[in-house]
Specification:
Jelly Rolls, about 100 residues, mainly beta, single chain
Length: about 100
């Protein structure tokens, strides 16, 4: 399991890119686990790419809403065969407290 957001504290409404997750098991489903303790909900958009520089990112599915003040992690399954992934986290309203943690397995 790789932690792609480790205690990210958003204080604006700009998009924030996670670290890059690379896997060579393209055909296996991936588990995305997230926990948002911010005082605002976040939009989490999964992206795939053919290179680690994400020169031409592709949105994978619709964005997931991570509710404000989560007390326990939630998860989503990714079944599309991408091997280079990242997550873009965005707040519609700037949070004043909390953090975001996201893992991919």
């Amino acid at each position: 399991m790789v932690k792609v957001f480790d205690g990210l504290q958003l204080r604006d409404v700009n998009p924030h890119n996670s670290s890059v997750f690379e896997t060579y098991a393209r055909s296996q489903p991936k588990l995305v686990i997230f926990k948002n303790t911010h005082d605002q909900a976040l939009s989490l958009q999964l992206q795939g790419s053919i290179d680690t520089g994400f020169t031409n990112p592709v949105k994978i599915g619709p964005a997931v809403t991570a509710p404000a003040g989560m007390t326990a992690p939630d998860y989503q399954w990714l079944r599309e065969p991408w091997w280079i992934l990242r997550i873009v986290a965005t707040a519609a309203v700037a949070p004043s407290s909390g953090q975001l943690d996201v893992w991919i397995e």
